[in-house]
Amino acid sequence: MKIELPKKVLFIINNLQLHGYEAFAVGGCVRDSILARRPQDWDITTSAKPEEIKKLFRRTIDTGIEHGTVTVLFGKDSFEVTTYRIDGAYEDSRHPKEVQFTNRLEEDLRRRDFTINAMAYNDQVRLVDVFGGMQDLNHHLIRCVGDPEERFSEDALRILRAVRFSAQLNFPIESATADAIRKLAPNLQNISAERIQAELVKLLVSPHPERIRDAYELGLTKVILPEWDAMEGVAQNTPHHKYDVAEHTLRALKNVKRDKILRLTMLFHDMGKPMMKTTDENGRDHFRGHALVSEELARSIMYRLKFDNETIRTVTKLVCYHDYRVEATPKNVRRAMNRIGVELFPYYLAARLADVKAQSPYQKREKIENIVEMRRLYQEIIKKQECVTLRQLAVGGRELMDLGMKPGRELGSMLSELLEYVLDDPARNDKEILCAYVKNKLNL
User: Fold this and answer.
1) Which of 190, 247, 264, 358 would bridge with 251, disulfide CB 3.0–4.6 Å?
2) pTM of this prediction?
């Protein structure tokens, strides 16, 4: 098998070989190349020790030198070059206490997580596949290298990585590997929130976000996202729905593009339903106020998983408004754009459409037509540059002070009132018209 190595990777490998060392591209880059995917990173493993690697390249960074990793820099590109190693005992379910360098590639591959990530390649030897990675790629399986309990006991994050790779590649998890995951899932509580967040996001933006159901069935969400478990089996006995809350959420996730904000929004959008469910005397379920509870749950979960403030702000706002429904009129759309935000409005429409598509056929056509018309009106409003924000008002605080108003709460209230006046009719966004409105209100 021939893999086309990038020129810079080839240079690093050739330079190491020229000086008497072994060197291979290794891990995910080899797997992705075999699958005809574009690798995100190219990692290199070598028999050279870190200090020997540093002597051979002009620009290097000691990124993980105690574990044998040196980053080699080429312009704006960087490549991790790591010495063959054997990991010592793992004491925190994540990192080895110490590592021992070795001159045998097989020993280095043996310590890796899954067979499909334990292959190496260079142009001289070609593919090195000691643990059946090619066979598992061909059979579409996620399988641990060696004893799965041992691999997961070493690094509990591998438990979540198994489900993430399953979602990215659409490969089922091999039975013995799955059994070990079920047994050791509680060890995920030892993993940092940041690491769990990163794996969860990768799972969500994968081609198969519905495999979060696998995380539930294997006992992972019970540890990292118990709010998911609360949605499982919660029926929605209403004409608008035909799936329980969790199944509806899975389908809504698949109905939006692979965008971090949208996938997170759909993950959380109905999470408040189990808490807000009521059933009337006719046996019909209601979930009044679920959007606000879902918003609070989303905020709490994202704080817990150490998401950045901007992501939290954006996702929680979309969750809050995901069920905001109005008649598609220019006035209503302008007001909705003002409430939700001009930049966020296309995300709101995408979330609403995904939600509706995951519901029952009841009134589905009318709901979708409403969303399509709202999108058309939004585009028209943008094109005409109609005023939907305070920033777009033809007057500001300076003009109101020129009319005799003093800075403070009253001035802010008047600006908000003027915006409401303009949202009703964009033709009113004219300095003379707005100043006349203010004069009339102030009896000037």
Assistant:
1) 358
2) 0.93
